[in-house]
Each structure stands twice: as C-alpha cells, then as structure tokens.
C-alpha cells in the first residue's frame, strides 16, 4: 500500500528521506479492506476501507511533514488506503468477498523497478511502527 508516492528523485533526497524516516513514531496499524471500489477516471478497481484508523492518518501526516520542505510533489487529495486489484478496468464487477485484514508493524521506502517481466519492488529501508 503506497503511503506517499515520491517518483524519481535524486540520490541526495533519498539519503535525506532515509535519515528523517528514522524519527517517525506511530503505533502499529490494523486495517480492514471491506469495500470494492471502481475509480472511473484512472480506471482502477481496488479494495478500500470504510474506516481508517487514526494511526494510519498519523503516519501519512508524519510522512507529509517530513517531505514538506523537499522538492517532492505532494498529493492534493486526502489519503485513502487502497489495494489496487486491476488497472484499465472497465467497470466494477458485481461480486461478494470476505474483507481482507492487514496488520502493519513497519513502513518502508520501496523502489519500483521496470523489468521485462513487469514491475518489481525492492525495499530500500524499513522502520518499525512504535510509539515514541
């Protein structure tokens, strides 16, 4: 689940992010993805949560603050936890499903790498979620 999309940045900014992220203190996060959403403009089918815990908002806000003075574009829309199921979807299918629970005890800086076999994700660094 993407908390903050950074995009392509210079190596010096990655170094700054790695140093700053060490100072984030947020409790572990539990989510229940219990809604199937279709977003027509990007044509994305995804799972979302009816309720997002305060600890998730605290983490996203901490990340936004951490990057506020850096030349990284911040998302204008409010954060909405989601798991993308399909891109280029034409409509929301009529299906029922059991909610998907996710428990996060850490967050990470992840690099997406394009390969012949598709996108691969590589964790650069991760940090535990814990109160300060």
TrEMBL record:
For this UniProt record, the keywords arranged alphabetically read as follows:
Hydrolase
InterPro entries named among the record's database cross-references: Cyclic_Pdiesterase, RNA_CPDase
* Coiled-coil blocks: none
| Gene3D superfamilies (UniProt xref) | Cyclic phosphodiesterase (3.90.1140.10)
Supply the name of the protein.
2'-5' RNA ligase
């Amino acid at each position: 689940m993407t908390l903050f999309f950074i995009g392509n940045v210079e190596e010096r900014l990655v170094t700054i992010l790695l140093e700053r992220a060490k100072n984030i203190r947020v409790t572990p996060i539990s989510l229940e993805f219990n809604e199937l959403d279709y977003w027509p403009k990007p044509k994305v089918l995804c799972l979302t949560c009816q309720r997002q815990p305060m600890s998730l908002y605290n983490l996203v806000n901490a990340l936004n603050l951490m990057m506020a003075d850096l030349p990284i574009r911040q998302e204008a829309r409010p954060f909405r936890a989601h798991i993308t199921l399909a891109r280029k979807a034409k409509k929301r299918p009529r299906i029922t499903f059991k909610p998907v629970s996710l428990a996060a005890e850490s967050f990470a800086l992840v690099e997406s790498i394009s390969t012949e076999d598709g996108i691969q994700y590589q964790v650069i660094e991760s940090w535990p979620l814990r109160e300060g």
